[in-house]
Amino acid sequence: HIEEKGFDISLAHPLKTRLISESKVKTDKIDAESLAKLLRLGELPKAHVPDAHIRKLRGIIRHRLALVKLRVKVKNLAHSVLHKAGITIELTNIFGVSGMQFLKEVPLKPHHRFALNHYLSLIENINSLIDETNAYIENQARNIPEIEILNTIPGIGTYSALLLYAEIADAKRFPDAGKLCRYAGITSSVYQSGNTERYGHITKQGNRLIRWILVQCVLKTAMHPNAVRRHYYRLLKRKGSKVAKVASARKLLTYIHIMLTHNVKFEDLRVNSV
Fold first, then answer.
1. CA spacing 20 to 30 A to 216: which of 65, 90, 186, 232?
2. What does the alpha-carbon distance between residue 152 and residue 89 come to, in Å, rounded to a whole number?
3. DSSP H or E stretch at residue 201
4. Strand, helix or coil for residue 25
5. Residue 196 pairs with which residues in a beta bridge?
6. Measured between alpha carbons, how far is residue 185 from residues 163, 230, 246 in Å?
7. For the chain, what percent of residues have pLDDT higher than 70?
8. d(C-alpha 255, C-alpha 176), whole Å
9. pLDDT digit string (tens) for 183-225?
10. Cα Dmax for the chain
């Protein structure tokens, strides 16, 4: 709405605006004055402001994520009822078609049945909403060249591709892949003192959704012959599963930066032909 009225928008980077975050006296008026001074002096650390189209896509992506989290919460509540009732179910997917049918028919005390029926009804309703959201996402993803490029990566479907596209916005705004990896918070923290330099865990100071979806996709991508698979299994033997997944996610994001900035499909990357 502010943009529609013709105002220029400057979004301050919260982690870099130390003048305000470390201030002992904090009020909205003082914060506003401090930001205004930094902006006037040209020293305001700015964060990227995505356009309206990207903000809309981010909204629907995060809406689906909220629905999935809500479903997980309701499933946990259903598990709690079963635990209290002393019911043990040996099914791979307790909330699949056969599992749901069993849960609707399993003998329970009236108060347990009353609660479980409500949770099962909520799960079915949320499933329906997620299906509806998936269809909406598929429709939004059509005719976006970046989505078509990202879909060439094995293990990355429409939802994952749209999430990456929306959260990265314009890959060309990052001069190199390292900057994009730092934006995602998937680079190692560095501790330097004199001539000593130590590397720690990843910073996790960045876009957590990019970081999350990459780690989710790595194992699927590594199921196919490609550079990510080779990198993952090489590290898996030496460093273990956790390190291998994170490092491979960073490698995958590096390839994504190349793909989006140079309009290259995954199978056409030179590293995959080796």
1. 90
2. 39
3. strand 196-202
4. coil
5. 193
6. 16, 23, 11
7. 82
8. 11
9. 998 886 545 555 554 545 666 778 899 999 999 999 999 999 9
10. 71
